[in-house]
TrEMBL record:
It comes from Peribacillus butanolivorans. This is Nucleic acid-binding protein.
Length: 67
């Protein structure tokens, strides 16, 4: 039976942030940040997972991070 927690260090202390990033081509050249993600990260070791905000709406991202 495996314990839930960070995949790298096992900590249960996590947080999440919303970030925006540029894509490729013209959006990169003009610095258009049209890709939006939610980042869930371990506060102890910094391990991070990115989730596309459009496809992950409605799910509990902290539950996905901890398995």
């Amino acid at each position: 039976m495996s314990e839930k927690g960070c995949m790298k260090c096992g900590s249960n202390d996590a947080a999440k942030k919303d970030v925006a990033m540029t894509g490729t081509g013209l959006s990169k050249m003009f610095d258009v940040q049209n890709n939006q993600f939610t980042v869930v990260y371990c506060k102890k070791c910094g391990y991070s997972e990115f989730y596309n905000r459009q496809s992950s709406a409605g799910s509990n991202l902290l539950d996905l991070f901890f398995g």
